[in-house]
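Quick start: what a row looks like.
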Amino acid sequence: MGIEKFKTKSLKELLEFGIINVDKPAGMTSFDVVDFVRKKLKLRKASHFGTLDPMVTGVLPIALNRACKLTGFFLGEDKVYEGIMRIHKDISLDEVKKIIKEKFIGKIIQLPPVRSRVKRQEREREIKRFELLEKKGREISFIVECQGGTYIRKLIHDLGQALETGAHMIQLRRIRAGIFYEKDSTKLDDFKKIIENKELLKKIIIPAEIVSEVYPLVNVKEASVYRLLHGAPLDHKSLIKEKKFDKGQIISVFEKEKFIGMFKVVNEKNIFAKPQFILQPI
């Protein structure tokens, strides 16, 4: 289902169930940016899809009003960062590349930093790409593609320890968060001007139905909508077309172009999936 068809939604509908891809500036916390957007758009609530440190810039998708319920469904998506690290002793680029290839590609074990808000226990994270771009003295520019929840500052610190030289991150920018890209983001200074023009504002709000590009889309029959909107599980006879998914798979459920909600596949007798979030009619 192409997301463009949802662009016909009214501004009121988009503000109620939409997402804005903000280019976060340095010097603001993620909460500051969310709070700024919430107040400027006079929203009841807003939330972001993954914290960026105050000095880190880049892609910060912000959910508006009822789209906040989708936050948990976007958080674990892969992220891509560009940054600069400084190694504490000068060694060759080839030596750094060698250690990265040996220890920092694929599944790694990471202990969150002391100042993180999550419990400090070792967690497995996947580094899909860790490429060194350029070396100037002891400063090395890099790009990392990783599983959501990876701490890049800690990754660079751990790399420095593995090199036995020490290293720290001096600059970082997120250029992709799941399906949200830097090229489609809106700078906060531009946002301040855009909110004065309803048509321009409509253009930068992404319909939250875009979640169907992250999780498989399943269509249901019109006759089943009332039951589903009242919390009933999704049974096989309600499906337009029988679908096979593994137990535990998250799916997005629609009746034609109407978003019903997010469901988890259970494959229990007649029950195909159970609701995780239902979007009640506005």
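That is the whole record. The chain is about 20% helix and 35% strand. The CA atoms of residues 130 and 144 lie 5 Å apart.
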